[in-house]
Write a structure and sequence with these properties.
Layout: E1 2-4, H1 15-19, E2 26-29, H2 42-53, H3 57-61, E3 69-74, H4 80-84, H5 93-110, E4 114-118, E5 129-133, E6 139-143, H6 145-150, H7 153-162, H8 174-177, H9 180-186, H10 192-213, E7 216-220, H11 238-247, E8 253-258, H12 259-262, H13 272-279, E9 283-288, E10 290-295, E11 298-302, H14 313-322, E12 328-331, H15 340-343, H16 353-370
Parallel strand pairs: 1-2, 2-3, 3-4, 4-7, 7-8, 8-9, 9-12
Antiparallel strand pairs: 5-6, 6-11, 10-11
Helix pairs in contact: 2-5, 5-10, 13-14, 14-16
Bound molecules: D-mannose (DNO) and manganese (II) ion (MN).
Cofactor: Fe(2+); Mn(2+)
Function: Catalyzes the dehydration of D-mannonate.
Catalytic activity: D-mannonate = 2-dehydro-3-deoxy-D-gluconate + H2O
Amino acid sequence: MGFRWYGEGNDTVTLDHIRQIPGVETVVWSLHHKQAGEVWEQAEIDAEMARITGLSDEARARGVTRTLDADVVESVNVHESIKLGRTVLGRSRDEAIENYVTTIRRLGRAGVKVVCYNFMPVFDWLRTDLWHPLPDGSTALYFERAVVDRMTPEGLIADMEAGAHGLTLPGWEPERLAGFAELNAAYVGVTHEDMYANYRYFLDVVVPACEEAGVKLGVHPDDPPFDVFGWPRVVSTPDDLQRVLDLHPSPNHGLTLCLGSFSANPAQAPLAADTVRRFAERIHFTHVRNIKHLGDGDFTEVGHRACEGDVDTVGIMKAYAEAGYTGYVRPDHGRHLWDENTTNKPRPGYGLYDRALGVQYLLGVWDAFHHSPPSRTS
Ligand code: DNO
Ligand code: MN
């Protein structure tokens, strides 16, 4: 069981908080100051992993013995030149791929087991409201399809610059907005087929390096799982997942199956548990969370319990238990609860409380299906 952490001074959650959540063993981390395409330095990797896995003298003095591992990195982001198959933002794809390989080798040397990434054009996950009020006084990430459909990429950026809706996109800090016009132009005419060809080119170099380094790659599905702004998304449907896996068959090339993202298409939500069963052997890491569809393509994120929304989180955990799943799991986004918004405002979706509740729910379901009673001898 893992818990995502954005690093010291970059997250309202601390490693102590994480150690207080029963059942969490793995910190899911990244070097968040690194831009896509940049090499990660070995010393920075080692220092961050030491911080996560070590115990401070102060914690030791308090008698803390429980340690966390740093087995999973989310994410090492893929530079746009790789997705586009051409030089963009001043970097060639071959240089970006070479840097990716160097980073993977260094992570492997440091003991990292799984690297999560995504292959979405330009943006990572997309929501139209990051602090949507729910009737109980909590807030949650929210998606209104019509807002996205009528919004142009340029309009979106203008809104962000103006600070409208408090809308910020993950991975789109103000300094990166400058490159947006170039990217938007570069995607004109790029087809899904082009993206698959570029994806294969990337995997053909990176997967053999992962095999050597002992690192498993897990692609995170598109969130939401359909094209936005006319840019081609290629990791959306079950058939897409199959096609992506078939681009370069290897046990080191698999999925970070995010069932919340996958289920953001209402037609796919009922397929979640079946999709776990179908791809179980190639799932190295999974995000399990719930969303509720509101009609017209709108959805809100909700608590992790199955009956709160449209994602069968129980069926999903049962499918993992029955498949003998040995990969990593984490709750994904959570709502913002118990005055988090006003006291210690977290990163959107990454507060402490609802994710900690999610951990307990997922482990509860897992234990119910996976538990083997002590054998009796009479
Ligand atoms: C959404 C999140 C994503 C994920 C990245 C992985 O469901 O889990 O932001 O971290 O797409 O690269
Ligand atoms: Mn996810």
